[in-house]
Every structure is written in structure tokens, then in C-alpha cells.
Amino acid sequence: EVQLVESGGGLVQPGGSLRLSCAASGFSFSTYWMHWVRQGAGKGLVWVSRVNGDGSRPIYADSVVGRFTISRDNAKNTLYLEMSSLRAEDTAVYYCARGDGGIYGLDVWGQGTTVTVSS
Amino acid sequence: DIQMTQSPSSLSASVGDRVTITCRASQGIRNDLGWYQQKPGKAPKRLIYAASSLQSGVPSRFSGSGSGTEFTLTISSLQPEDFATYSCLQYNSYPWTFGQGTKVEIK
């Protein structure tokens, strides 16, 4: 069964840092581009970042450039999102999602992990 | 950035009704669009990709159409399990962008 399981969310103070993880199973992880998407409470989905199969070409939404870093460890079948200089507006549920062959959007999603930025 | 304008933001409908949701892109995106269903507290689930291709396992009452800048998701006969929020996603160019969502509620 194809599965994505996020972890690492929690409460962090403004200006703080947090690292999210997404453990993948049931598919050939290294051959898929992977994404992070977030959703504030009662709000719409927002695409955050994407990394290609070997991790060499990350791309970010303008709102997180310079603060978030996406990476992956293909030996561990794990995707990461390193978040720093966190702001209240980063508070959201963060989902990892699999890119469908790079041409058909996002086909598989994790259950999400909640990040709360508050003092 | 490509803006996706989704309408309506919410609707009330009865079981058995035909429901149509629209997404308009601020510029042409060919057919690089997907539709997602999300229930409270759950992750989004893909229904449609490439504007009109039905995801495996999704009931045939769901259909998508459109190309370029205007797209529709149609539920031919609304079922109790279809009450949820629906969102479109354009993946033509980065940053990928979602519509703001349509909440389908019970009338």
C-alpha cells in the first residue's frame, strides 16, 4: 500500500525552527518528485515546495523562500521540510504529497502534521 | 503566478441533485488541472486529473471538463458521502495554485 506519514509538527515560538518529516512506503520513493502543501485553519490549500527525485532541484513558494528548506533522503525513503524564522502565518496543517509522474499534479497525500507558531 | 478563481464558495444541495463547480485560471493552463475532495480533518483526495481523467476508484458520478482557462467539476447525482469541500489545483507552472474551495452542504 502506498503511504505517506508526516511527523514533527508542534508548538513553536515566533522566530523558532522546526523540522517536519514524511516517511514514504509502498512505492519507489526516489523516482517521484515530492511536495509540501499547507492549510491554515478554515482556509484553502497552499502549495509550499517541491523537490525532484535526487533532491538537486528544490523550488519554493515566495512566502517561504529563504526560510524553509526541502530535502530528501532516498536511502531512508523520507522527505523533510526544515522551517526557520517561523511566523504566526506559518501556522497550518502541513501535508506531504507525491507528484504524479511530474505531469499530473498530486496523487497521494499524507494525513498531515500540525504546526502552531505562537508565543 | 496563476490565480485560480473557484465558484461558488459554498452551495447547498440535496441528495440526488446535479452539482457543478467551476474554476477559472488567470491564464491558459492547457488541461493541467486536478480536482480534490476533502472532508473535515482529513487529507485531500484526488478525484480528477488532466482536467477530465477520473482517478482510479472514484465513482463515475464525478466528471471533469474544460481546457485553457475554464474548468468544471460535475457530480451527476449527489450522494450523502459527497458532502465535502472541493478544490481545484493547477500544475501548469510553479508556483502551483489551488482554488479557494467549494463547500458542498446538505440542503
Protein described:
By secondary structure, chain A is an all-beta fold. Chain A has strands spanning 3-7, 10-12, 18-25, 34-39, 45-51, 59-60, 68-73, 78-83, 92-99, 106-109, 113-117. Chain B has strands at 4-7, 10-13, 19-25, 33-38, 45-49, 53-54, 62-67, 70-75, 85-90, 97-98, 102-106. In chain B, strand 7 and strand 8 (70-75) form a beta hairpin. The radius of gyration of chain B is 13 Å and the shape is globular. The model of chain B has no long low-confidence stretch (mean pLDDT 97). Chain A binds chain B through residues 35, 44-47, 50, 59, 61-62, 95, 100, 103-107, 109-112, and chain B through 32-34, 36, 38, 42-46, 49-50, 53, 55, 87, 89, 91, 94-101.
Helix count, DSSP H or I runs of 4 or more residues of chain A? 0
Mean pLDDT of chain A: 97
Question: How many β strands of chain A by DSSP?
Answer: 11
**Helicity level of chain A, as a percent range?**
under 10%
Q: How would you sum up the global shape of chain A?
A: globular
Strand-residue proportion of chain B = over 45%
| Main sheet attributes: strand count, strand direction, barrel closure of chain B | 7 strands, mixed
End-to-end separation of chain B: 36 Å
Kindly report the average pLDDT value of chain B: 97
Order of helices and strands of chain A: EEEEEEEEEEE
Which stretches of chain A are low in confidence, meaning pLDDT under 50 for 5 or more residues running? none
Kindly estimate the percentage of residues of chain A that lie in beta strands according to DSSP: over 45%
User: Oligomeric status of the shown chains?
Assistant: heterodimer
What topology emerges from the helices and strands here?
The complex is a heterodimer of chains A (119) and B (107).
Chain A: E1 3-7, E2 10-12, E3 18-25, E4 34-39, E5 45-51, E6 59-60, E7 68-73, E8 78-83, E9 92-99, E10 106-109, E11 113-117
Parallel strand pairs in A: 2-11
Antiparallel strand pairs in A: 1-3, 3-8, 4-5, 4-9, 5-6, 7-8, 9-10, 9-11
Chain B: E1 4-7, E2 10-13, E3 19-25, E4 33-38, E5 45-49, E6 53-54, E7 62-67, E8 70-75, E9 85-90, E10 97-98, E11 102-106
Parallel strand pairs in B: 2-11
Antiparallel strand pairs in B: 1-3, 3-8, 4-5, 4-9, 5-6, 7-8, 9-10, 9-11
